[in-house]
C-alpha cells in the first residue's frame, strides 16, 4: 500500500503550489474582470445617456464590457475587413475616432499609420489609450485639411455617413489623389433604418443599400467591392476600392481558390 501511496503523495505535493497559484490567479481575474466591466459600463452610460452624445465611440468599452454583455462581435468586423486590404506600407485613416483600430488592427502590419480626426477629444483619447511608435495622430478636418502624401491604404471607417453627399464627392477626389497607383480604399458604414430615422444625430447621410453606397464609390475606381453583414441591431456595409487588385479578387496573392 505504501508503494502505491508514495508516488501519489509526491505527485500531489508537486502540483499543489501550481494549483494554489492558479486558483488565486483565477479569483484575481474574476474580481478584476467584474470591476473593469462595471467601470466601462458606467463610462458608457455617462458618455451616451447624458447630453450631448460624443462624435466617436471608445472601443475599450466594447473590449471590456459591451462585447461580452451583448455577445455581438460586429465591432470587430471593421478592423478585420480593413486589415485584409493592408499592403504593408503607409496607411491613412480618416476620422479615426479613439484610434483603437489604428493601433490594434493596422499598426503592426504597416510601416506607418497617419490617423486623423476633427474632434480634439477623439485625438486626446487616441493618444492616451491607443498610441504606438509608428502611429501619428493628427487633429484635422478631412473636408479642408486632409493630410498630404501618398498612401498604400486609406481607411474611411464608420465615418462616411457623417458627411453630406457633396462632401463625400469632394473627399473622394482627395482620397483618389493620395492613393498609390494600386492603393486600396476600404471602410464601413451602416444602412438606414427601415423607418428612415437616423441611427445617430451626427449622421448626415445614411445609405439605403449596397447599391446606394456603390454609386458614391464606383465613379472613382476601376474595381469596387461592397458587401454586407446583418445583425439584429445593425445592418452593416463594407467596401474595398482600388484601380489594382482587391482582397479575394483575381490575382490576390494572399489567397488560393480551389473548386472541384
Number of strands: 7
CATH architecture of the largest domain: 3-Layer(aba) Sandwich
Can you give the helix content as a percent range?
A: 40-55%
Name of the CATH first level of the largest domain: Alpha Beta
Question: Quick one: CATH superfamily of the largest domain?
Answer: Vaccinia Virus protein VP39
**Count of helical regions:** 7
Structure notes:
The structure is a single chain. With 260 residues, the protein is an alpha/beta fold. The protein folds into two domains: 1-51; 73-242, Vaccinia Virus protein VP39 (Rossmann fold, 3-Layer(aba) Sandwich), CATH 3.40.50. Helices cover 42% and strands 20% of the residues. The chain contains seven helices and seven strands. It has helices at residues 2-49, 59-70, 74-83, 100-106, 120-129, 165-178, 210-217; strands at residues 90-94, 112-117, 135-139, 151-157, 179-190, 223-231, 234-242. Strands 3-2-1-4-5-7-6 form a seven-stranded mixed beta sheet, sandwiched between helices. Helix 1 packs across helix 2 (59-70) and helix 3 (74-83) packs across helix 4. The longest helix is centred in the first third of the chain and has 48 residues, at 2-49. The N and C termini lie far apart (63 Å).
Draw up the topology in text.
Elements: H1 2-49, H2 59-70, H3 74-83, E1 90-94, H4 100-106, E2 112-117, H5 120-129, E3 135-139, E4 151-157, H6 165-178, E5 179-190, H7 210-217, E6 223-231, E7 234-242
Parallel strand pairs: 1-2, 1-4, 2-3, 4-5
Antiparallel strand pairs: 5-7, 6-7
Helix pairs in contact: 1-2, 3-4
